[in-house]
Amino acid sequence: MKRSLFVSLSALTLSLVTAPAFASEVAAVNSNSTNNIVEISPVDLVNRSYQGFLTEQGIPSNGAFNRAVHKGRVTAQDLVNGAIASGRLAPETINDRAYLNHVNSQLRKINNN
After folding, report:
1. Residue 57 per-residue DSSP state
2. Burial 7-21, CB ≥16 within 10 A → b, else e
3. For all residues of the chain together, what is the average pLDDT?
4. Which of 15, 55, 81, 90 is 20 to 30 A removed from 97 (C-alpha atoms)?
C-alpha cells in the first residue's frame, strides 16, 4: 500500500514539475481572424528558432542558426515571417516595430557572442 502511494505521488510530482514544450507561449485569439493564434514572445521566438522551431520555414537550427545570424542570412523579419507561417504569430506582427526591435535585440546578443 505504501509503495503504490509512493509511486502515485512520485508520478504526480513529476507530471507537475515537467513543463509543456511551449509553456511560455500564451494563447491569444486574433480579433481579425477566426483562427486561434498562439503568440510567442520575441525572446522565446529566438530561443525556439535556435532549437529548430522554424526549420520547416527554412531557418537553420543550433550552430547553423548562430552562423546564419552572424552572416546576416537570418533576420528578425525572417523569424517573424516563419512564426506567422507556422501559426505562432498573427500576420500583423510583421508590422509591429516594437516586436521586431525586440527580436533584433535578441539577435544582436547572438552576434555579440
Report:
1. G
2. eeeeeeeeeeeeeee
3. 78
4. 55
* Upper half-sphere CA count for residue 56 (Cβ side, 13 Å): 6
The reply to whether 98 falls in a domain is yes
Please tell me the predicted confidence (pLDDT) of residue 38: 66
Q: Is residue 24 included in any domain, yes or no?
A: no
- Structural domain of 83: 42-112
Is the residue at 60 inside a domain?
Answer: yes
- Cell numbers representing residue 50 in the block: 535556435
This prediction's pTM: 0.68
**Count of domains forming the chain:** 1
Using alpha carbons, select from 102, 99, 83 the residue that is nearest to residue 91.
83
**What grid cell was written down for 97?**
516595430
Q: What is d(CA 66, CA 102) in angstroms, rounded to the nearest whole number?
A: 17
Helix boundaries (H) for the chain: 2-17, 42-50, 62-70, 76-85, 97-111
pLDDT in tens, 24-64: 444 443 444 435 666 899 999 999 999 999 999 999 999 99
